[in-house]
Amino acid sequence: MPQESRKAVEMLSVETCHNELSNCPNVLMETAKWKRALLQWAEEADISKRLRMRVSGNKILYHHRIRISVSGCPNCCSKPQIADFGIVGYVSPAVNTDTCTICGACRDVCPDTAITVKNAPPLFDRNKCQGCVKCREICPNGSIVLMDPGVRLLVGGKLGRHPRLAQVIGEFDDLDVVVQRIGQIVEEYIECANSAERFADFWIRTHY
Ligand code: SF4
Ligand code: SF4
Ligand code: SF4
Fold this sequence. Notes:
Number of strands: 11
Bound molecules: iron/sulfur cluster
Low-confidence stretches: none
Largest sheet: 5 strands, mixed
CATH architecture of the largest domain: 2-Layer Sandwich
CATH topology of the largest domain: Sulfite Reductase Hemoprotein, domain 1
CATH superfamily of the largest domain: Sulfite Reductase Hemoprotein, domain 1
Helix content: 25-40%
CATH class of the largest domain: Alpha Beta
Shape: elongated
Radius of gyration: 20 Å
Number of helices: 6
Strand order of the largest sheet: 2-4-5-10-11
Order of helices and strands: EEHHEEEEHEEHEEEHH
Distance between the termini: 31 Å
């Protein structure tokens, strides 16, 4: 439903998964901190007002707004794949070859078939690995260690008439860098998008 153009209609929203409410054991990042930083950037850059100025008329439609979705782990409960921007916590596994007995348990448990174990310690396919920590949990020898968590930044997801999943544009370990990158992209959108062009359509048109 269209919303009246009143001051309280925020044009940018930041949602997180409910890891804090559910005390989720999978969480890899402090999602509330990321949300605060993003909202602070949006306020300081006056993003809501500037996005509102792109819309002629008095009705704000769902796709006029920009939605940022933050998920604390690759399970993606907040649906970052269909948001304009998605931020997803992940970790990268690595193996201590001195203690690995090449049992294959990590390969068998991996939900993303990212691990190969033949006659040598596991190899991880970085393109497949979602950073979910299951391999570390199953390893009987404690041979799998996790690198410091990072986040993947996804851009350009949408539903509607022509749905599309957001694509990963990079992996980062610094909150400020991610906020800055999102800020640059939103500035490009505000300055360069055609009138009435929704964000995901602008992103696809200018990057694919
Ligand atoms: S996305 Fe991950 S951390 Fe967040 S609630 Fe879902 S399982 Fe937990
Ligand atoms: S589960 Fe552990 S011990 Fe077994 S292959 Fe994987 S890393 Fe090696
Ligand atoms: S972290 Fe998860 S996705 Fe990555 S290799 Fe281990 S089990 Fe597979």
